[in-house]
Amino acid sequence: MDISTKEDIEVPLERVYAEATNFEHLERQIMRRGIELRRISPAGQGSHAWHAVFNFRGKARSADITLVEEDAPNLLVYRSLTDGLEVLTRIEFVALSRSRTRVAMDLELKPKTLSARLMVQSLKLARANLEKKFRVRMADYAQAIEERLKRA
Prior knowledge:
Elements: E1 2-9, H1 13-20, H2 23-32, E2 36-39, E3 49-56, E4 59-71, E5 75-82, E6 85-97, E7 100-111, H3 114-125, H4 127-151
Antiparallel strand pairs: 1-7, 2-3, 3-4, 4-5, 5-6, 6-7
């Protein structure tokens, strides 16, 4: 199952990419949402990996997230593993002009177990609602980046 969206941000490509790779800031934002996050790779070592614990559908779950590909300032690819589900998150950054950047995000869900397949199947049934929430969250995040970087 794939879910994708894109947003345009009125900020130059390099600044958007720098914001998207400011891992300390991202970690703080994630923890503010009630997700327990622990970095499992040393800071500044080039590779980035985290262990997260969160609630989903009323159940505590955990995930291991790894940055598997980075092509600065154009691409970030994360691989997440949780409860038999592998999620590849691909984030592409494209300069539309000197002051405008398009951020495209694509999630690919790959179930590895029967229970993960059932979960993905239930997500497919609610696909329209899920995609709408994904687009809204991405738009909110893009707007927050734009506002924060315009103030700086």
